[in-house]
Specification:
The complex is a heterodimer of chains A (283) and B (284). Chain A is mostly helical. Chain A is built from eleven helices and one strand. The longest helix of chain A is centred in the first third of the chain and has 30 residues. Chain B has a domain of 186 residues: Cytochrome Bc1 Complex, Chain C, CATH 1.20.810. Chain B is built from nine helices and one strand. In chain B, helix 3 packs antiparallel against helix 5 and helix 5 packs antiparallel against helix 6. Classes of the chains: A mainly alpha (283), B mainly alpha (284). At the A-B interface, helix 1, strand 1, helix 2, helix 4 and helix 5 of A face helix 2, strand 1, helix 3, helix 4 and helix 5 of B. Strand 1 of chain A pairs antiparallel with strand 1 of chain B, so a sheet runs across the interface.
């Protein structure tokens, strides 16, 4: 009985995948080594290193922030152990997330309110997450060697680079401290031709934490997608609307991430509103 | 575990045999009723590819960091009080006061809290490094797609732990970061305002928010993570770990045909497994 050679059909991808995995199972069975003790030995050493690093970080945190009053309020190499108690009444605090959210935090400097902030808060992170989850279905080739996966490798490097840059930029983002911004108030008055009635509001603006997110005539830090306010008065929103917005931002601008400044009290909100309405961006 | 003797066993041999039976009895008892001993034996003595390397310890390193988080977290929960109310004795918020107490007064409290605080960062970093390793090795491909997705879910859950845990010290840093974080959640379309409202537990961030975050931080999200890690490990054991893709001994490479150069050079052993090219299935 002569064997007639059949024309070879190209195996489907699923068949190739299954055959590859069966070969893998067979190879591991015949040529592998037991998890214990070989791989487990490496895992154990690595785990001990991890625990040692965590204890080390805790110790550095403790001992570098250990102040004369033992109050934990002195920042050390890794920051203070705790800051002052939460106080909804103070608004001069710069909001800062933990470092692994810096990339999201900084993304909101790139996308500005109101046109595109949605991209920074939801759009880009959602797309990135969908791509991450979908990776095994986007890249369905069997090839695993990095040298033969140029597209995947370039995409991976670009992702790491952009995450790294965003994290770094977020970490080194300038914080607008009230004590520094208040020195710019005379310049604002001069450059923007602010009337005397707007001066108390300008001082409040500099010291109440507004500049943690908003810029004004080049002062302050641009954070969380907050717009520049140098020319906010040209929109002629009116004093009552400005006050209402400061009391409850999302009631005037739906979806605004800005916190309420109602704790400043009506008088000071009124002063702030006068200042904002007087800001016509004349510079 | 019984030894058969050709001759009559001596007294000392008999005694040893009885000892062995006595020692193994609880193990055998457990195995007969649960199969757990066999399961553990399978876990420990299952084969892994001979060429696994140090990069493949990152997953178990991340698991270790998570275990540190659970242990230190349980200890912290014994001393921490999630209340935004003012403590009449000190005039400070109760939650803040309990964190200060843990940090400054409880024996080794600074260490436990420090390990929890920084263990979180180490956990996140190790998850990212582990993910990078899996990406580099192409280990997310068939048949491990599902485990990649579970891994991404663990990463996201871990970051949610970071977000909810950040508020608990109830200090200025915590409060204002959470105010903005919750407001940012509110910018999402459709579900955003509802989500922000749910996270806050009301119109303002206050005591309701704190207890809500506490509950999510130590019950909901860790429960989810533990379940996901269980699934993740089950799939790792079921599907096995991959060889480094550049390895000349990589498990699962395509055999070369008839000693001819392989169709896919990189996927084929440069050095034949058994010394003779083209004879698959040989043993060393």
């Amino acid at each position: 009985m002569a064997v007639v050679p059949q024309p070879k059909e190209k195996p489907s991808r699923v068949d190739e995948q299954r055959a590859g995995f069966a070969r893998y199972k067979d190879d591991v069975k015949t040529r592998g080594k037991p998890f214990y003790p070989y791989a487990m030995f490496h895992d154990t050493i690595m785990s001990l290193v991890v625990v040692a690093v965590i204890i080390g970080l805790a110790a550095i945190w403790k001992w570098t922030s250990y102040g004369p009053h033992h109050d934990g309020l002195n920042p050390g190499l890794l920051g203070p152990e705790y800051t002052a108690p939460a106080d909804p009444g103070t608004v001069s605090f710069v909001p800062r997330p933990d470092w692994y959210f810096y990339f999201l935090f900084y993304l909101l400097r790139i996308f500005k309110w109101p046109e595109s902030v949605f991209l920074g808060t939801v759009g880009v992170p959602t797309i990135a997450l969908m791509l991450l989850i979908g990776l095994p279905f986007l890249d369905r080739r069997r090839e695993r060697r990095p040298s033969a996966r140029p597209v995947a490798m370039v995409a991976g490097v670009l992702t790491i680079l952009s995450m790294g840059v965003l994290t770094w930029k977020g970490a080194t983002a300038q914080e607008a401290l009230a004590s520094e911004v208040i020195r710019d108030v005379p310049r604002w008055i001069h450059e923007e031709n602010l009337p005397p009635a707007a001066v108390p509001g300008a001082k409040l603006f500099a010291t109440s934490g507004c500049t943690a997110c908003h810029t004004y005539a080049g002062s302050g830090g641009s954070n969380l997608g907050a717009p520049d306010l140098t020319a906010i008065g040209t929109r002629n929103l009116g004093i009552p609307t400005q006050v209402k917005h400061l009391q409850n931002p999302s009631s005037v601008t739906p979806g605004s991430p800005m916190p309420s400044f109602a704790s400043l009290g009506d008088d000071r909100l009124h002063q702030l509103a006068i200042f904002l309405e007087a800001s016509k961006g004349t510079h | 575990m019984t030894t058969t003797y050709k001759r009559k066993p001596t007294k000392s041999e008999l005694r040893r045999q009885q000892m062995e039976t006595a020692i193994m009895y609880p193990v055998d008892w457990l195995e007969e009723r649960s199969g757990l001993v066999g399961g553990l034996r399978y876990f420990l003595f299952r084969n892994v590819p001979a060429d696994v390397n140090w990069m493949q310890t990152l997953g178990s390193a991340a698991l270790t960091a998570f275990l540190v988080q659970t242990i230190t977290g349980v200890i912290l929960a014994m001393y921490y009080t999630p209340s935004a109310q003012t403590d009449p004795a000190t005039g400070q918020p109760v939650a803040w006061e309990s964190i200060r107490h843990i940090t400054d007064e409880v024996t080794m409290g600074w260490l436990v809290r420090g390990m929890h605080r920084w263990g979180a960062s180490v956990f996140i970093i190790l998850m990212f490094l582990h993910m990078g390793r899996v990406f580099l090795f192409g280990a997310y491909k068939y048949p491990r797609e599902l485990n990649w997705i579970i891994g991404v879910l663990i990463l996201v859950s871990g970051m949610m732990e970071g977000f909810t845990g950040y508020l608990l010290p109830w200090d200025q840093t915590a409060y204002w970061a959470s105010v903005v974080g919750i407001n940012l959640n509110g910018t999402a379309p459709f579900l955003g305002p509802w989500l922000a409202q749910f996270l806050r537990g009301g119109q303002e961030i206050g005591g309701e928010t704190l207890t809500r975050f506490y509950s999510m931080h130590m019950l909901l999200i860790p429960g989810a993570i533990i379940g996901l890690i269980g699934l993740h490990l089950y799939l790792v054991i079921r599907l096995g770990v991959t060889s480094p893709p550049w390895s000349r001994e990589a498990a699962g490479m395509e055999p070369s045909e008839n000693g001819r150069p392989p169709l896919r050079p990189g996927l084929t052993r440069a050095v034949p497994r058994n010394g003779i090219a083209g004879q698959p299935g040989g043993q060393k």
